[in-house]
Amino acid sequence: MPTISDVAKRSGLSKSTVSRVLNNYPHVSEEKKERVQKAMAELEYTPNPSARKMRGALTTTIGVVVTRIVNPFFSYLVNAIEQVAYEQGYQVVVFQSNEDQEKELSFLQLMQHKQLDGIIMASIENDEEVIETYLAYGPIVFVNEYIQHMNTVPSVRINHIAAAYEGVMHLLNQGHRRIAYCTGGLFEQQGQSDDRNIGYKKALAEKGIEVDPQFVFVNKHTIEDGESVGRAIFQMKEQPTAVFTGSDEVAAGVIAAAHELNQRVPEDLAVVGFDDQPIAKITYPKLTTIKQPVDDMGRLAANLMIEALNGTTPTENETVLETKFVERDTT
Amino acid sequence: MPTISDVAKRSGLSKSTVSRVLNNYPHVSEEKKERVQKAMAELEYTPNPSARKMRGALTTTIGVVVTRIVNPFFSYLVNAIEQVAYEQGYQVVVFQSNEDQEKELSFLQLMQHKQLDGIIMASIENDEEVIETYLAYGPIVFVNEYIQHMNTVPSVRINHIAAAYEGVMHLLNQGHRRIAYCTGGLFEQQGQSDDRNIGYKKALAEKGIEVDPQFVFVNKHTIEDGESVGRAIFQMKEQPTAVFTGSDEVAAGVIAAAHELNQRVPEDLAVVGFDDQPIAKITYPKLTTIKQPVDDMGRLAANLMIEALNGTTPTENETVLETKFVERDTT
DNA sequence: GTTAAATTTGAAACCGATACCAAAAACTTA
DNA sequence: TAAGTTTTTGGTATCGGTTTCAAATTTAAC
What are the protein's UniProt keywords (chains A, B) (predicted)? Predict the structure, then answer.
């Protein structure tokens, strides 16, 4: 690999001059500039990023942390972030935390040594205090998840409480009284899923209905999870007549279980999904769900990050995007 | 950020000794070792990766190139690779090429300056000669895709010809004679999809059937693509009675289009998918498809890469894994 | 009790870039 | 034409590690 010294030698100039050409500094005569460029071309020279980072240069690399990339919500989110970043000359590297605190921490640490200029967190495993520590090394942006009352980190999210409330209220208004509930997280806990839990509870409460713990399924993420939830529901003596799920995947699994057990959707069980991913249009019947503006979320988060990297103070500290209830055929 | 010099100062020793402790070199007395470790802990010291790379150290980072991460086949593949790599102490960074040659090239270049130890390519946009150039900078492993007769790069793949042949032959044996065909690539071209094309043509040829260009759909990837293919098929005067698709996504889209147009699957149109992703179990009817051992592919590719990085000559240069025809309800 | 060998330690060079500073060259102005 | 600016260029220190080499110390061997 040729180095800057090789280019200097070949062009008969000094490293300093080559560096100036490389970084488009003023005060380089047109003649020498061309000589340098010629030498660089001939040697197929490319600057060594590690050496640059040593001098504190930006890496133009943004990290994105998600729990699992196989979750379509995250892969679409990453895709949107990547699009914007690429346009602005930034690289994106994706990290899967697998919900592991340690792993997440090791990603945050990459900022310390400028391997990453900034980090967009689409999932949060560590505490507020821990994350705050790393703000010293570069900007952090929350997307999808957030930490309540933490206003040192800009966030892009939806109103999970309202979204869940709307979904459950729709079912209630249709006359359902026994409504099961699936979440990717826990039922009694802080954070995102907590917000959806609140929406669920609030809707039920307004109709004077108590939460039946038997109807609550926690830590459900995948199609398989949804199938097992469906099977569990259909073998209860007193079955729920509807289920509000945490994702389209889980919902699709529930529907598949219904087919298997010869149960009708929505007659025997109404189903509401979450996300409005492409999959929502290929279940049969088509899935009623809550549309998250995943592309907008990704784009906004990326823009917030790039603004922060450019030293602009963020326009908005907390952006809450609208969800949309999409009624199809499962309710 | 504390540096190695800070640790040296605090422990009253030299940088060299600290470096030796850091890298587990022999010939460091137990006493000094402890002093260094104590100082490192107190300062919360972490070594600067850029500085290390400058001296040619490995980065323990593996790059994976895919076309689009939102394609579940790729996200599952990446997931499997990541698992193995993480166990072995390697980081994985994922790149989306979006089928852009330039972009792919810029990833390959990262190896030149040891930003990446090696690259696993799950998609290939550049020519053999170009890729060969980068072998000088680190190992490359092909997975899923490959380049024929290129034995300088180990590859993990399936037999696309046989897989497509088996799927199409299944339809032929059921009596279908007008069989449509979807591919993610082109119909007349080199590479992966070309292999599937060969299998399709071969099966038809054996039954003495000519390819009807009208029945061939190219560059189809998504559920939406599948829906449009379905709509196109159902409005033909002389419709195909079956369709062999390039992915479960496309197949699911075709099935969705059938529902929309009140056509029955498989009675009016039989459908065969490819991949056997989770989505194959939630279409209605459940999708007949060809199972790719995506986890095995990812794991094997990762292991090949790690072997190569450890200097071991690869056990196998070309690993061809078995696919499995999974008959469900759409045929 | 020497001498040889092995272990332990530190000083200094080095990796490849950037940044500061001073010297040289070119250009203004009086 | 001399003095003062401005532009252009190169030398050298620096970032934070690793590596080489030699010196100092300890251990082993005779």
Answer: DNA-binding, Transcription, Transcription regulation
